Amino acid sequence: MIADKKEFYGGFGLLVGFFVVLAILFSPVFEGKNALNYLDSLYNTISKGSAYYIPKLKKEVADFKAEPVSITITMKDQQQAEKTALLFTKSGASTEVSESGIKISGDFNKILENCLEDADNMFNNNGAIVAEKYGYPEKEVLFNWWSAIKVMDKAFGKQNKFKEMKLINSISKKGVECSYNYYKIVPQKITEKLGIVVFSLVFYVVYTMWYGFAILFMFEGWGLKLSH
After folding, report:
1. 132-144: per-residue pLDDT in tens?
2. Which end of the chain is more exposed for a tag (fewer CB within 10 A), N or C?
3. How many domains does the chain fold into?
4. Domain assignment of residue 31, yes or no
5. For residues 211 and 36, what is the distance between their CA atoms, to the nearest angstrom?
6. What is d(CA 205, CA 199) in angstroms, rounded to the nearest whole number?
């Protein structure tokens, strides 16, 4: 038995409306995307504008006093090792590939400068420059930089070169990873989309409460009450 039909059907109407709106949100009506993909793309374009750390990283590298590096790193396989060796060769270092291992000797600063140059081009969506430079896809280039830095970090740890470890970790996270994740995304200022951003945040709160009140009214109309 329904104790309060008006409240119950009012809640039911809210619930139906909630799912109608949900169906619209999952339809490709927002510039050919559903609402989730559209907002994800929007917030990526906005966040990219505030994630450009490369100029600061370049200054840190320029100010860093490092000794010539002599290190051996091991990649996943010989093919990756050969492609990764190109990154260091283009940095002015000498390399020697043996199966999946790469013996590297060169100027540490120049290696990092070259890495940041590639990351900078990728961040600014100039991937063709990077691909032409090494002769294989630009995203694979950045992945190989990321993989090489990860292995170099462990090697430097064994040599107790903690300052070098800190610097390359910063370059990996704020330079290489950012550039890889934001590649081909066109940055926008939040002021350009302020209306949509504010609406999406307000709508999220209202839409969440909408569902909650629909359930509340239905249960109360049904005769279920919370008591202490």
Report:
1. 999 999 999 999 9
2. C
3. 2
4. yes
5. 18
6. 10
